[in-house]
Sequence to fold (330 residues):
Amino acid sequence: MGIKILSTGSYKPLLTVTNDDLASCVETNDEWIRTRTGISERHMTNGEPTWYMGARAAERAIDEAGIDPLDIGMIICSTITNDYFTPSCAAVIQRETGAANAAAFDLGAACSGFVYSLDTARRFLMTDDRLKYVLVVAAEQLSYITDFTDRSSCILFGDGAAAFIVERSDAFCTSWLGCDGSGMNHLYAKVAHDPHPFVKDPVHTDDGTADDAPVGVLVQDGKEVYKFATKALPHAVKMALEGTGTGVEDIDIFVPHQANIRIIETAAKNLGVGLEKFYTNIGHTGNTSSASIPLAFDEAVHTGAVKRGQKVCFVGFGAGLTLAAMVFDY
Ligand code: UT7
Fold:
């Protein structure tokens, strides 16, 4: 059983940060960033919290679907940049949208998080007849955890949110979710906190991350992530299609995680699919983690680049290291 995406909505912060703007923080230049990543500019919040971006995107999706928010039975928000340890971003979005009958929780699977969330929504819809609509949101404020002194990473990230209203359907849908925790030390952001007052001899543990790594900001081994991503994309797609009788050649449009245009180019080649089938908007959004796939899809829907009846593939990869793909009839 599949899902029907009734509507999509998005929120892109109005503040635009260009490559030249970044060149005033770190030693870099527009040409290096464009040729190595495909990014020219990205949106960043001008103080809007993550919940605010998620709620505005959700309202747009609800308006477009023309549904009563009280008929939404569940809100799943994918985020790694919630404003609070607790409550969840989904809980605040529930308040903002008036979806008072909805269960609400966040899901954290980094850049694969939207595919994980959409698949979770599908499985809830499959098993609970009382559930009519699920609101699936991805809201990310990467600027919140970006190290603006690290030129190899700060040039990649942007902020934004997107939301879907989904319901159950009999349309084709298949998915696969994966993770390789042995690579967690290639991409992480450590939580900043002081030990409680009763700690004496702290237990020493080693998770493979650098002891002197800065806390509260993203740390990455760009080359390792690059290598992983170019293999993860084709692997996740093939795993999702396995045993379904549907092949890669049957897919009309791929919407990959917008990490780096060179990753997408190499991964498309590894999958044996022409780049023209890959929808990209990284040039003006940067990498918005889990918001990148729904942001790109919302753009593709509203510009007519994707049409009803087409077979669509979402494919994500990121910290964890996580990877996930979903193929469905739109
Ligand atoms: O959602 C997943 C998030 N993470 C990713 O997607 C990251 C995946 N990795 C990448 O996208 C790429 O590895 C980067 C864009 C991060 C780096 O590109 P690269 O082609 O792997 O560059 P590099 O690390 O090999 O660096 C090449 C040179 C180095 O200088 P030297 O040692 O050759 O003199 C760097 O110091 O480029 C230098 N460099 C820069 N120069 C200008 C690194 N960052 C910059 C910069 N501006 N921003």
